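Here is one chain, start to finish.
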Amino acid sequence: MSVRERAASVVMGTIATQERAALADYMAQGYGGFILMSENVPATPEELADVTASLVVDPGVPPLIAIDQEGGAVSRLPWDDAAAAQALQQAPPGETEAAFARRADLVAQGGANVNFGIVADVPADASSFIAPRALGTDPASASERVAAAVAGESGRVLSTVKHFPGHGAAPGDSHQSIPSTDLTLDDWRAADAEPFAAGVDAGAELLMFGHLAYTSVDDAPASLSARWHDIARDELGFDGVAITDDLGMLASSGDAGYADPVANAVEAIAVGNDMVLMIATSTPRTAGEIADGIAAAVDDGTIPDERLQEAAERVMALRLGVAE
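Its structure:
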């Protein structure tokens, strides 16, 4: 692939429509992924499968079609009848495996192949915004249930563990700010790291990096931190696709340093993400602008060519695996 084609292949965006021709035209530009939001989901699974079919330009190399289907508060499929995190926190881990197997079947039935559904964050207390979405209330219980959720999804959809390195220690909602903590790396290793390690060990194919800063490790949010990507690769042994949380959240955080979505995407790929996700600020033009920016950054040396090649190859390996 050309540099521009590789750049497009590491972009996952969305457009708010169910119009089949518009979706097909959007994906014909070579984007590697699409995230289904509520606006893309019609009334029935059968209709959704028709929508997702329009996203597949080449059946031999299907895109990564993702959905945030945690169940409960974060749910795009109205027909998801599986237990959600808040109930599973108090249930045996086997019930988590069964719930996520059921959920994965529903996601796959609708034509998606990636679920952004496994929340590995350990909430500091019940008032945390992430608490109702977390699978456990402490590192040990979260680890058991994260591993069980990955096992439940295995062979059905590609699993994503989020939001690395963990919202629990960093108070605040990353949809509105960049939460931060001065928790040390050793303290993180002893607690919040455990559910992510469990998810990686269980075989999760994607790891989503959160927009939160552990300032004793790196002042930058983890999504834009080379240090955190090294930790995921070298300490956790993660060898799958690293993807950002929605980069639109950074742009709307109130920090002027992150106001430019193209600059955020370039930095995200440069530090080690294999795919950039755009939701909040995604338009029919945004993904193309980001792909152009990534390609230009390779041309001017901001992103080493081999870094983009590595990212594109990791994404392509998942896409080819879905096609098999």
